[in-house]
Amino acid sequence: MPNEPVRLYGPDFQSDPAGLFESVRSAHGPVVRVFLDGDVPAWLVLGYGSSTAG
Q1: Residues 12 and 20: beta-carbon distance below 8 Å
Q2: Which of 23, 25, 48, 54 is least surrounded by Cβ atoms within 10 Å, i.e. has the fewest?
Q3: Pairing of strands 31-36, 40-45
């Protein structure tokens, strides 16, 4: 589900982080809600243009 945070830990992340980032960007866009290890909430920016847009 696009509105649900993506977990950036676990077996999928460990085995292919680049592949996970690619699939996350395809499914969610350039800015994504994520959970870091320990379910710490954060935002992940996957596009430089999105981080500098005013």
Answers
A1: yes
A2: 54
A3: antiparallel
Judge contact between 18 and 30, C-beta under 8 A: no
In which residue are the tokens 């592949």 written? 19
So where are the chain's domains?
6-48
Question: For 1-54, what is each residue's pLDDT tens digit?
Answer: 557 899 999 998 999 999 999 999 899 888 999 999 999 999 999 877 655 665
Nearest to 11 by CA among 31, 37, 44, 46: 37
The position carrying tokens 């699939």 is 23
pTM of the model: 0.75
Sign of CA dihedral 54, 23, 39, 13: negative
